[in-house]
Design brief:
Blueprint: E1 6-18, E2 32-39, E3 49-50, E4 53-55, H1 62-73, E5 80-87, E6 102-111, H2 114-117, E7 126-130, H3 141-156, E8 169-170, H4 172-183, H5 189-199, E9 202-208, E10 218-222, H6 225-228
Parallel strand pairs: 1-6
Antiparallel strand pairs: 1-2, 1-4, 2-3, 2-7, 5-6, 8-10, 9-10
Organism: Amnibacterium setariae
GO molecular function, one term: hydrolase activity
Pfam family, one: WHD_NrtR
Length: 230
């Protein structure tokens, strides 16, 4: 019996923050976690939505493949990118014929700033969806998204990844809103401020948010952003 060929693909779960699709009654802020998906234009799973990705080229690293596939399918360039997991179960995506290769997927997850997530992708087959309300996905991509969401929430507790979702200057209220959107719960403003200031990862810019009446909040910059750029 001839061995079945194997090919390596690289896919990415990319997160950004956008206003929720519908008003919420959970007292959270005005942002929710979203991710871009690509609609398949061929079988299998024609018409279904899937994670952006593609094959690994022989002359590139996994990270290079992830960035290339992201730019080619969505036009997005992340502010943070790291490997999530390799999905290669034998029964995963069983090919229609023995001649078709079994696909092993190396999956990355990434972040883009909020202002980037707010832009419209100029492709009818690419769209942003709320992470908590995804359409039926191709292959095992629903499981993969679940892994990525859990990783994002876990790393938020002990890293400064939230800074990669913010512009160069931000208020502590905006930073708290990012944490609330990811964790799905309200955070006490005073406690959050004390915890953030204790980390030493933000520094006041000396400026204040424009267009706000009555004591505009101070603007900060991240002192840990260089650690996030990958």
């Amino acid at each position: 019996m001839a061995e079945q060929p194997v090919t390596v693909a690289v896919s990415t779960v990319i997160f950004g923050l956008q206003p929720p699709a519908e008003p919420r009654d959970d007292a959270l802020g005005g942002l929710a976690v979203h991710l871009p998906l690509v609609q398949r234009v061929r079988e299998p799973h024609l018409g279904r939505w899937a994670l952006p990705g593609g094959p690994l080229h022989a002359d590139e690293s996994l990270r290079e493949a992830a960035r290339r596939n992201l730019a080619g399918t969505t036009g997005l360039r992340p502010t943070h990118l790291e490997q999530l997991y390799t999905f290669g179960a034998v029964e995963r995506g069983v090919p229609a014929t023995p001649e078709e290769p079994r696909v092993v997927s190396v999956v990355y997850w990434a972040l883009v700033r909020t202002e980037v997530a707010a832009t419209t992708v100029d492709d009818e087959h690419v769209a942003w969806f709320p992470a908590e309300d995804l359409p039926p996905l191709a292959f095992d991509h629903e499981e993969i998204v679940g892994w990525a969401v859990r990783r994002l929430k876990n790393k938020l507790e002990y890293t400064h990844l939230s800074h990669a979702l913010l512009p160069e200057e931000f208020t502590l209220g905006q930073l708290r809103e990012v944490h609330e959107a990811i964790l799905g719960r309200r955070l006490d403003p005073a406690n959050f401020r004390r915890r953030v200031e204790a980390t030493g990862t933000v520094a006041p810019t000396g400026a204040h948010q424009a267009g706000v009446r009555h004591r505009p909040p101070a603007l900060y910059r991240s002192t840990a952003r260089e650690e996030l750029l990958t």
